[in-house]
UniProtKB/TrEMBL annotation, chain B:
It comes from Cellulomonas alba. Residues 11-259 form the ABC transporter domain. InterPro entries: AAA+_ATPase, ABC_ATPase_HisP-typ, ABC_transporter-like_ATP-bd, ABC_transporter-like_CS, MetN_ABC_transporter-like, P-loop_NTPase. Pfam families: ABC_tran. The keyword ATP-binding applies. This is Amino acid ABC transporter ATP-binding protein. It comes from the Bacteria.
Amino acid sequence: MPHRVDAVPVRHPGRWASAVVVLVLAAMAVNALITNDNFGWPTVGKYLFSEPVLRGVRWTLVLTVASMAIACVLALFLAVMRRSDNRVMRYVAWVYIWFFRGTPIYTQLIFWGLISVLYPKLSVGVPFGPELFHFTTAEVFTASRAAIIGLALNEAAYLAEIVRAGLSSVDTGQSEAARALGMHEGTILRRIVIPQAMRVVVPPAGNETISMLKTTSLVLAVPFTQDLNFATNAIGNRIFDPVPLLVVAALWYLAITSVLMVGQHYLERYYGRGFESHGGRRTNRQAAINAARTTPEATVFDDMGRPQGGAA
Amino acid sequence: MTASTATTPMVELEGVHKWFGHNHVLRGIDLTVPAGTVAAVLGPSGSGKSTALRCINQLEELSGGRIRVDGELMGYREGTRRGQPTLFRLTDRQIAHQRAAIGMVFQRFNLFPHMTALGNVVEAQVRVLKRSKSEATERANALLDRVGLTDRAAHYPAQLSGGQQQRVAIARALAMDPELMLFDEPTSALDPELVGEVLAVMRDLAASGMTMVVVTHEIGFAREVADQVVFMADGVVVEHGAPADVLDNPREARTQDFLAHVL
């Protein structure tokens, strides 16, 4: 490569020293985990893939996925309502978010567990008027459904604020351009605004999903007793050896979180399309300008932004 | 000017007023743009040029006056209520339908960043005109070719220069087969060396007979391409007429003052 600067780079002894210190500390931590008999690693191995634990993993996944799915749909409605021109919509969404963020999830879950006691029979009809149909609450609100609904309604309040932030992050010029093309408001939201908002929404929503994974252990309050945390606790109490079973639960939560993080990575990459590329914005722009050859005597830059010999 | 007085003008503004809160931005604008002609709107910043343009396709709702495009009243329907002639505001959907026939190009391009250049040109054809994907793609490719960007179809806006982005934006507007094109300072956000390529596309468009209203600071472009130059200041049309008259022999002091600063 011609015209390359030939200089000795700056040395960084501090980087080397700090890396060595941190690696030694990490090795000590791993050693302390593996060599301590109190963790009962053989017991961990015995129960890690046992039938009750696997059933717990399955239920925890079902609770997480189902409640997050319901919460996402609800959150989108709440976020759109909060931005609505309709005052009633704005207030209703605000009160919903205020209430569900303002009361403890544990209390909410107890409440959903008690709903069949509070309302033994639920009916749908005109207020103060005729009843259209009714059902027995206990048959519809089974423990698992109560758990999913409880988790979803609570989560929707948090997600709604994340979605609202995402919608607000999209430049108003975007919906203006779409409007000028004659697109309807619904189409603009679906095709133009939401896809761009997702770039802002996915990272915190990923956080919420991982948080939800562990919040599912609170469904004990319903009471729902099939999830991973309850399963491992039950075994630990039965065999009078709680620590290895805590490790089993921790390993499973860690494994599922890892899978979720991989999923988040791909989601971020999908919704980030068009916003960043390998060479960086500046290099790409420069490449485009050079390719257009509108600047006389322009220097041609390669992919890394380095000038190539000679004029274009 | 070529249009005869017998034909309906493409754009007709009649006593247009616009208030933003207590701010009286447009103070009675009258403007007529015959079909097939180009009107260049000049004036200092804050004179209301862009607002007037945005009123034409109802991106801003007027506070007073009437705007007609190809004889059709924009944003309202004329009817009667209890025997009295009355205006009825159109629904969002009806206004969207009116807008679809008017192309608009923005200062900041406003391309959809999550779609490729081709995707940007295809989108509204499919969603608004209900064209098939293949038909829309064919049309988009032809238009990208027309603005000289055949080899940039698969690029995202962030990978294009400002001049290229603005040419995609023009192609995107043309894909709707508009009868009128509105340009809101289309070259103001561009690096000086990229202005030429956008003006070339616009000049070509004017030559093809498109009716255009161009808010611009490019005096040279106005002189060369426009059939009519409109000079605005403080929310009113100060002076309008043929480019040679307004630009070379301005009658009003404010026009003379403005031109002395920009030329």
